[in-house]
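agent> Task received from the user: take the single chain below, predict its 3D structure, and emit structure tokens. No templates, no multimer pairing.
agent> Plan: (1) validate residues, (2) run structure prediction, (3) serialize to tokens, (4) report one or two observations.
agent> Step 1 OK, no nonstandard residues flagged.
tool_call: predict_structure(input=
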Amino acid sequence: MKYSLSGLWQLSPLTDLSIPQDDISFPGSLSQCLPVELSEEVIASQEWHLMHDIEVDEAFLSYSAIDLVLEGIDFYAEVRLNGFALFDCDQRQSVYRKDILPFLTVGRNRFEILFLHSEDDDLLCDDAPRQDDQCLLGRLPYNPYRPEIGIWREPHLQCQTHVRLTSITTEQVWHYGGGCEVLVNLHFSLLKPGLVSARIKFDGRIYSVPIDVMKNEASALFQVDAPVTSEGCENDTDCLYTVEVDLDGLHHCIQVPLSVNNQVSHFPL
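)
tool_result: status=success, residues=269
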């Protein structure tokens, strides 16, 4: 299950305390709820505090894992839950993820994001992920989103019962007589044994793939009779194929170019 944390967040200044507090929703820039006379440069030069509360019950805590997912933060920020330091957004990766189930309690829970000036040392915590939660092929490299300070992707929680999908890879096998096959591989870690299957959609076809919890991956093979390759496109976005995966209550969507020269694609999650 996906639980949105898009809003409302209370925004408070930490530098110029004369700036009034206000509520804000994401994705978006901090400037959307600040006085119009504040330029983006002035906003970026100051420090800010974001606060968001959620109510949690026993049913919510029954999940095997609850991951906080943050993406689209281009400025240094410290993330906390109920006063505990979770991780720092330090431009070392594009997507930040952490299992917050141990920090949640029944009742009101408070998320905080502090946009601060980085001091180039580990101020809060050791945010190195556990080995069993890492994608063995690496994390998504950092790519800037927008020059304005804000959060440019919807913050959310991913509530999982049986498996955690860590990455999706695709492999292309091209035939000399024309056409190709696309192998979609799902890489996951086991959270709780049970009967679970993945729904994989590609090029208009859908396969239901049973998940063997004794393994860490599952796959589906798709035949493409008349592939549109990126080599023959002027605009790469017009030649992308969409892969959709539904697994353990969560929906994932990636876009894959078909190319004779680049036959393997890797998408860490």
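agent> Step 4: summary for the user.
Helices lie at 40-45.
agent> Done.
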